[in-house]
Amino acid sequence: MGAMATAAPELAPPAAGRDPGLDSIRAKVESGERLTLEDGEFLYGTPDIWGLCRVAHSVRTRLHGAVAYYNVNRHLNYTNICALSCKFCEFYRKKDEPGSYTRDMAYVRQEVRKAVEGGATEVHSVGGLHPYLPWEYYPDLVRTIRETAREMGSDLHVKAFTAVEVVHLARIAKVYKGASDPSEAGRAARREGIRWVLSQLKAAGLGSLPGGGAEVFDDRVHDEAYKGKIRSDVWLDVHREAHGLGMNTNATILYGHIEQRRERLVHMDMLRRAQDEALRSGSGSGSFQAIIPLPFFPDGSDLERLPGPAGLENLRTIAVARLMLDNIPHVKAFWIMQTLPMAQLMLRAGADDVDGTVVWYDITKVGGGGTHQEVSAWSLQKAIREAGCEPVERDTLYRRVIRDGRTWRVA
Ligand code: V47
Questions:
Q1: Which of 30, 112, 133, 376 is the most buried (most CB within 10 A)?
Q2: Which atom of ligand 1 is nearest to the CA of 355?
Q3: Using CA atoms, how far apart are residues 324 and 20, in angstroms rounded to an integer?
Q4: Residues with C-beta less than 6 Å from any ligand 1 atom
């Protein structure tokens, strides 16, 4: 006789059919009532994942019809040297460690020329917290990108520097006062330094802030996984200051590591409150344009023992983000991290944007691959059409791009 058959592990019953509990949430969503954290927990727990996707899809359709956005962009990481050692991060290197780099302006000019030749409308530039680069490097970086593009007749948008980098720059420029003062006066002093940095960068040509560095707005998760990074209050203050200067920004949430679903929902609630504030400030003020849920990639990080979120959790999180963040217009399924096939599904579950052509991406490498992660505009359009949506090329500010080969203008 062969080896004894082991009992198959008990399987959960297949995902149930319709969840009647979703009806009251659907009714709330249709009447424009804001969902509570408890509603969010219900959505995360429902076995009727397709019902959840349908409700999120109805919101996405009300906002954007069948349109799904993409852009032609390039990522340019100016350095991977970082004073921090966040446990989830595989990108950072220490100075003199093999593979560490810092780009000079000749390199930046060369990459911008390639970006413009490839028809890019945006350069997305972020980096580690370099301990020694002088303050002048950063406005110079923005100016170099803008001027190189302008010489080629392109009004390339620079979306650069996460809130974490902005605070680092304020420290380097020695304008970050009151760092250890918990009073309102301390906060006002810190915000003044942040405002100074952002206005200098804006004067150099900075167009908007990306959504990175937010991780999860929770002190427990912060202290365990990215101690040393700014906390949620400061991240939000940087975005408030950018909005005050008339710049739009994005927001992310990095999920699927050591956080709980409830903590994700609290993060989303904090973002929508900050967005309420931004929208109350009226015209001339910027706001959050997009929420980008980022699934955690364990490979090569200090949290490599964790499995990372599975496909259905990613789908669920996109849908929940669409439903909870009722005042942020766009939900981005960043194809680099979600994969293109999953991003297609997400276009039917709340997402309306897949990000762009990217070309080089150094922060996460799918399947342990290299940094060359490029997809053509044609492939993005094809994927969007296959998902039953209408592809629309956008610029960074979600204006339609009218294109004639590599030359373009916004509608
Ligand atoms: O801030 C780092 C995250 C972010 C890992 O604004 C990781 O349009 C998963 O913010 N697994 C950078 N995520 C990326 C980012 C972004 C991407 C695309 C578009 C936009 C936008 C913003 O990536 C970091 C961090 O939260 N990250 N390591 C990892 N192992």
A1: 112
A2: 19
A3: 19
A4: 88-91, 162, 210-213, 215, 250, 252, 254, 292, 294, 296-297, 301, 334, 355, 363-364
